[in-house]
Amino acid sequence: MAIIIDGKKISADIKEELKDKVSKLKDNGVQITLVVIQVGNDPASSVYVGNKKKACEYIGINSISYELPESTTQDELLDLVTNLNNDASVNGILVQLPLPKHIDEDLVIQTISPSKDVDGFHPQSVGALSIGQKGFVSCTPAGIVQLLKRSGISIEGKECVIIGRSNIVGKPMALLMLRENATVTICHSKTKKLSEVAKRADILIVAIGKQHFVTKEFVKEGAVVIDVGMHRTDNNKLSGDVDYEDVFEHVSAITPVPGGVGPMTIAMLMNNCVETVTIK
Ligand code: GUN
């Protein structure tokens, strides 16, 4: 019988641990502050930002939010980020993506001080991860490693296949699994015989952004399947990149959607915020 990896429970455990740590830091006079910047009012971004603020409040992290109009210029945003970089009372800076088209996202990410880059998106953070140095790790991949470890699934020596090569999930995921001593393959839209490659995986991580892309033809008997996708179905339910019903009988463990990877991203963001006072 397959294990259903419980992201809700694991993320709640992590948040409890962080709450405890933050309380101890406060006893020693250390207050953590996260600044969240949203430009424009994309409804999905507003939901994400609201959830981040709620998590901060729960854990005891001070959150300051800037809700800037769509018309904000690139220079205005860069000036704000620079001021926050120089403000010693600010520990973490998060600029919610996507940004309006007239703003260069890469430039904004590069302007955030690596010491306050709680998203782990700065090239220095990614570079540090790639050569095994300390730095912030992108939250979703970091959350997936926690899901595996806290579910008692060993990573060392395993064949890990990742479907998807985004800067936010696929690439840092590969680097993290390599750091955990897995043998790692990344697949993408141009990969030949993708289902055959996927079938090599002991641990299959799917972040391709296509609903129900992965069926049992992609899954080795007994594999662990991690589904990063999140889609709304026609009857307004949430589902992932993996056809859960189809693969369920073939896997040894699987993340559900919702309640798998999703809740981990904010938990790991909170973890990065706490690390701002320990990682430097
Ligand atoms: N937009 C969607 N996910 C994320 C995230 O993890 N961080 C930021 N900054 N923007 C996002």
Q: How would you portray this structure in words?
A:
It is a single chain. This protein is of the alpha/beta class. It folds into two domains: about 30-115, Leucine Dehydrogenase, chain A, domain 1 (Rossmann fold, 3-Layer(aba) Sandwich), CATH 3.40.50; about 140-260, 3-Layer(aba) Sandwich (Rossmann fold). It has ten helices and eleven strands. It has helices spanning about 5-25, 45-60, 75-85, 105-110, 125-130, 140-150, 170-180, 195-200, 245, 260-275, and strands at about 5, 35-40, 60-70, 90-95, 160-165, 185, 205, 225, 230, 240, 250-255. A six-stranded parallel sheet has the order 1-11-8-7-5-6. Strand 5 (about 160-165), helix 7 and strand 6 form a beta-alpha-beta unit. Helix 1 runs parallel beside helix 10 (about 260-275), helix 2 (about 45-60) packs across helix 10 (about 260-275) and helix 6 (about 140-150) crosses helix 10 (about 260-275). The mean pLDDT is about 95. Bound molecules: guanine. Guanine (GUN) binds near residues 48, 95, 96 and 139.
